[in-house]
Amino acid sequence: MSSQTARGSQIVTRLRLGTGLVLFSFVLTHFTNHALGLVSLEAMEWGRRFFIAVWRSPIGTIALYGSLLIHFGLALWSIFRRHTLRMAGWEAVQLLVGLTIPPLLIAHMVGTRGSFELAGTDASYPWVLYVLWVVDPANAVRQLVVFAAAWIHACIGLHFWLRFRPWYRRIMPLTYGAVLLIPTLGVLGFLKSGQTVAAYAEDPEWTASMIARTDPPGPAELPILYTARDGLIIGFWVLLGGTLVARMARDGINRRRKIALVYPGGRRVSVLPGTTVLEASRILEFPHASVCGGRGRCSTCRVRVSDGLEHLPPPNRQERDVLRRIDAPPNVRLACQTRPTAQVSVMPLVLPADGLRAAASRDMLSHGHEAEVAVLFADIRSFTRMSEQQLPYDVVFLLNRYFEAMGGAIESVGGHIDKFIGDGVMAVFGIRRPIDDACRRALAAARAMSENLQELNESVILEGIEPLRIGIGIHAGPAIVGEMGYGQATAITAIGDAVNTASRLEALTKEYGCQLVISETVVRHAGIDLPAYDSHNVVVRGRRRPLTVYAIADARALLPSMPTESDQASG
User: Fold this and answer.
1) What is the CATH number of domain 368-570?
2) Distance between CA atoms of residues 109 and 101, nearest Å
3) How far apart are CA 533 and CA 552, in angstroms?
4) Alpha-carbon span 143 to 136, nearest angstrom
5) Ranges of H-type helices in 376-496
6) What is the rounded distance in angstroms from the CA atom of residue 410 to the CA atom of residue 426?
7) What's the CA gap between 548 and 535, in Å, rounded?
8) What residues contact 475, with CB distance under 8 A and at least 6 apart?
9) pLDDT confidence of 51, banded at 50, 70, 90?
10) With contact defined as beta carbons under 8 Å apart, do 98 and 149 qualify?
11) Is residue 357 over pLDDT 70?
12) For residue 492, what is the enclosing H or E element?
């Protein structure tokens, strides 16, 4: 893909997102206005003043109707550009629901904004509700369908845009509540106010007075409005049908230019040039993971190209960024972004099996996500020499007592014990908490581990065993957190630079002759000051830049002066 094409793709993505957010804001404010119907009809009218002030202003009008046209145009372009209409279930629902909105919305849009622009009609809530609930009740049902379709379409888009952001998972319970509560209140307000207007309409004087205040379109304007409504609906179907016909015509013209994609086991599929590898997999019905829905926001659809790599255009910036983050070799590409121009042989590297569909409905940890975490490594010093002096059963007994003491210290402050490795332990903090809190908890765990070790040593000394000494390393940074492993050995773990660095800081405790080595990153997030302790700039294997670390002789001496969570809250 050329750089110009890549830029065009990025512009389309940003336009789709920007216009979608504008339309979501309109729907959200509309629902909020409807919800005031639970208070009174007058409250709805009061809210409408603010609604009109925003969306009928010159800026609001351009933003709203410009977004409608651009978003619809991008939807048609997406349909045309696809080389197969097979897609993920959620994507199909979003597309189909989105396409039901324009034909249902046009009549309402012409009846309100069109009447205002053409005849100066003040389409107040009493007038609109009178038309919907008294004059044409079937239209009220159509409006409820439009409400539901617009909300579902918007919420699906927002969820799949935000779901890989670390902060989003922390507010998901609130998000789910808002997704259900906002439309429910809006619909209930719409229903209650509609019943109110229907009751008022039984009084002919009220109806006559309301119509006189509204000044509805007359015989001269109505034919124009009806023509506009019918023309817009016909135009919608012509554009949609034309897009589908254009797809078929394009496919017919390009049928002779089809290329082959070869999959494991010799399975082949012929596709048009420009078809993504992920689309080809769906055409072939070949199992292919794609957690983000083929939007280039994860690497689960990546494939190894075993033959024909030279026939692939270079990665666009979005794909290049993802591949760089996972340190992929040159022959690994993202299936959702790669569009072969000649025959290639590919092998998906993340096979979905049965677990992928199940993972979609489970916690985000089931398929992994990026998060900022604090990682702690601890190891017993000189344990090999010590174990050689003990009987095997005694070594196991001592280790279990040690692990119990260390595990209890970690869990007491809310840490997650990742694994015990020989005589070492790895713990992760911040899987579901902010990074500042995670770093404070990691330091509190180091203190508790040191205290528990002191108590354990008081016991083992009486048993004639040399006291245990440990080294602890703590670092914080981004890591991939999720369920990993196989079968009974599956567990939540973390991988990434933060994990590797924490392990290397633990090894530095030997060099500095101390119990705890923490990175400057942890110190900064925890909000502590360490003027009394030695700092060192060290080159950690695997990192390009030196890292500032602090060597702490005894963790118990440092952490009592740490700010507690209550201190942080009160501050």
Assistant:
1) 3.30.70.1230
2) 12
3) 7
4) 11
5) 383-388, 392-412, 435-462
6) 10
7) 7
8) 374, 375, 498, 501, 502, 505, 518, 519, 521, 522
9) very high
10) yes
11) no
12) strand 491-495
Could you tell me how many residues make up the chain? Answer: 571
Radius of gyration of the chain from its Cα atoms, rounded to whole angstroms: 32
Amino acid letter, residue 89: G
Beta bridge partner(s), residue 518: 474, 550
Give the architecture-level CATH label for domain 3-252.
Answer: Up-down Bundle (1.20)
The per-residue pLDDT for range 149-184, each reduced to its tens digit, is: 999 999 888 887 887 666 777 787 888 888 999 999
The string of pLDDT tens digits covering residues 78-112 is 888 776 777 777 778 888 888 889 888 898 888 88
Rounded to whole angstroms, how far apart are CA atoms 479 and 549?
A: 20
* Strand 534-538 to 547-552 pairing: antiparallel
CATH code 3.10.20.30 region(s) in the chain: 259-356
Alpha helices by DSSP H, listed for 122-221, are 125-130, 137-162, 172-200, 204-214
List where CATH 1.20.1300 sits in the chain.
3-252
Give the separation between CA 537 and CA 86, rounded to whole angstroms.
54
**Residue among 290, 295, 560 at smallest CA distance from 450:** 560
547-552 vs 516-519, strand pairing mode: antiparallel
The torsion angles phi and psi of 308, rounded to 5 degrees, stand at: 90, 20
Q: Which has the closest alpha carbon to 477: 447, 501, 503?
A: 501
Three-point CA angle 119, 121, 124, nearest 5°:
165
Instruction: Say whether 381 sits in a helix, a strand or coil.
Output: coil
What are 508's two structure tokens?
């530095």
Integer angstrom CA distances of residue 344 from 129, 177, 460: 60, 47, 65
CA dist 147 and 142 (Å) reads 9
What is the rounded distance in angstroms from the CA atom of residue 492 to the CA atom of residue 85? 36
Q: Which CATH superfamily does the domain covering 259-356 fall into?
A: Beta-grasp domain (3.10.20.30)
Range(s) of the chain covered by CATH 3.30.70.1230: 368-570
- 413, 445 Cβ separation under 8 angstroms: yes
